[in-house]
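SnoaL-like domain-containing protein: structure, please.
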Amino acid sequence: MRKFIATFIALIISISAVAHDDRDHSNKDKKAIVDVIKSIKYGWENGDGLPFRRNFLDFEGARYIEGGGQNAGLDSLVEHHVEPEKDALEYLKLSFSEIEVHFEGDDKSFAWAIADTRIKGKVNKSGKTFDKKGFQTFLFRKINGNWKVVHTHSSSRDNK
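Here you go.
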C-alpha cells in the first residue's frame, strides 16, 4: 500500500509540474505575442515598416486587411500603407486594449489574438481629424521559436 501511495504522490507531483510548466510556457508565448502587437502599434504610429518586417511572415498569398482595403503581401502593406501615412498624417495615435490571445493545435504553434482598437489622427492635407474605434484580429504562427503574424484584419467606425 505504501508503494502505491508513494507512486500516486509522485505521479501527482509530476503532473502538477508539467501543468505548471505548460502554463509558464503559455504565459511566455502570450507575452511574446503581446510584445509583437506593441511593436506593430509603434510601427503604425511612426510610419516605420521595420516592426512589420521583423514580425510578419512574408509569404505568397499573404493578405492584410486594414481600413477597408487589402494589402497583398508584406511589401504592399509597408510601402503603400504604413510608411506613407507618416507623411500624410500630422499624427496617428493607435491603442490596442482588451487583448485576448488563444492558442490552437496540439503543438500550440498557431495562435490568434483579438483586440479592441482606437485610432485617432489628423490628415495633413485637409486638416481633418478622425477618431475611430473597432476591433483588430491577428493570426500568428510560431516559426523557429518566434511568433510571426500571418494575417491581420482591422475593422473600425467613427467613435460616437
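Notes: The two ends are 69 Å apart (CA to CA).
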